[in-house]
Amino acid sequence: xxxxxxxxxxxxxPAAGGIRRxxxxxxxxxxxxxxxxxxxxxxLVGATLVLVAFxxxxxxxxxxxxxxxxxxxxxxxxxxxxxxxxxxxxxSVAAGSITGQLGTVSVNDGRGLLNGSWTSTVSSSSFATGGxxxxxxxxxxxxxxxxxxxxATSGVGTLVGSQLTSGAAxxxxxxxxxxxxxxxxxxxxASWNPTxxxxxxxxxxxxxxxxxxxxxxx
Length: 218
What we know:
Helix content: 10-25%
Mean pLDDT: 85
Distance between the termini: 131 Å
Number of helices: 2
Largest sheet: 6 strands, antiparallel
Oligomer: single chain
CATH topology of the largest domain: Immunoglobulin-like
Strand content: 25-35%
CATH class of the largest domain: Mainly Beta
Order of helices and strands: HHEEEEEEEEEEEE
């Protein structure tokens, strides 16, 4: 028995060799299966880590928002008055007074404010003729003014004259409110054609009298 075994050590009997080959085949197949399983698990773990690290890859966005801004800047407020000499007419020195309209005064408010406001005031100088002596001068205390109603307005808010009728006329030797704007939203404007009433003193002399009427807005 030893001699037979020794003689078949290098080349096994068919039965024994067959068994050994079967065992080697079985071992190789198990090894290949394990390697395949390990590779599959490694790939699965890697894919899971990718999904955790980059969740957007798993659920792509279908909408997006972008914050967008812009700025609106305001302009200025201004007043325009008749740019040429206004002639109120001619009356007798015994007439007692002279009355006439000054011409259109306009305020344009381009500041674009929320709940804005403005006030226009008016004042008068004295009126004089010749050498501007006392006898040739009519004092500003003799000058009255009334705004009347607006002739035109634009914008949102309250735009109103301060003296709507002749009965509300005010002496303008010192600044008096002529027109106002209040509760204003955004740009606005207002125009009016005020009336001057100049009382003629009993001692007034003949001549062409000149003075200035000044409007402001703030």
